[in-house]
Amino acid sequence: MDFPKLKSIIEGLLFLSGEEGLSIKQIAEIVDQRIEVVSDAVEEMIADFMNQGRGVQILKIAGVVQLGTLPEHAAYFEKLAYSPARTSLSQAALETLAIVAYRQPITRVEIEEIRGVKSERAIHTLVNKDLIEEVGRAEAIGRPILYGTTKSFLDYFGLASLKDLPEPGLFEDSENLEEETQMLFNKLDGQQVDLGSTDQNDFDNENTDNNHAVHDEDLDS
């Protein structure tokens, strides 16, 4: 395998591995190359990213290689994370949050096994909103991150502890995941599952209901 292709593959692998990253040994096994070759490729990539002024960098932390953003751009990432236009949680994020709440501590892979789809983006969103956090590392190959809910999660839903979560039998499998997620957050939040701001559909529905109410009052009078 030529060096440019090897570096391209490694970049893709690091992107897919997300926050958990990969060790040099893991990468070498995947690409079927010697550890020394992979190590040289990673070092060259670190220099390439820096020299090219890329918006991401390659980090080596505790024996793990991963992609990361640049510290000097942090202010822009905070704007994105806390933008009012992005305060609502998607169905994917809600499902992921519910699974973490009931099955914690839990790894990304275990979440994805329950949901049946990739969940890295949903996890990233929930971490940014301080609803879940890293609570440890699993005793498994690669020491994957274990996630759990935060105090902010409890505060938001007015829970004294996780023991106050309704229906502990939920989220044992993925058969009725969407329905159970809706049921959970309807109970927790009272009437809506939107964490942050009412979306346009809710706004339109509310206006429609108000219009019906006014119309009924006119008929009564």
What would you say this structure looks like, in words?
This protein has a three-stranded antiparallel beta sheet with strand order 1-3-2. Strands 4-6-5 form a three-stranded antiparallel beta sheet. It has helices at 3-17, 24-31, 35-51, 74-81, 91-103, 108-115, 120-128, 151-157, 177-189, 200-220; strands at residues 22-23, 56-61, 64-69, 106-107, 132-137, 145-149. 54% of the residues lie in helices and 12% in strands. Helix 1 (3-17) crosses helix 3 (35-51). Strand 5 and strand 6 form a beta hairpin.
List the helices and strands and how they pair.
Blueprint: H1 3-17, E1 22-23, H2 24-31, H3 35-51, E2 56-61, E3 64-69, H4 74-81, H5 91-103, E4 106-107, H6 108-115, H7 120-128, E5 132-137, E6 145-149, H8 151-157, H9 177-189, H10 200-220
Antiparallel strand pairs: 1-3, 2-3, 4-6, 5-6
Helix pairs in contact: 1-3, 2-3, 5-7, 5-9
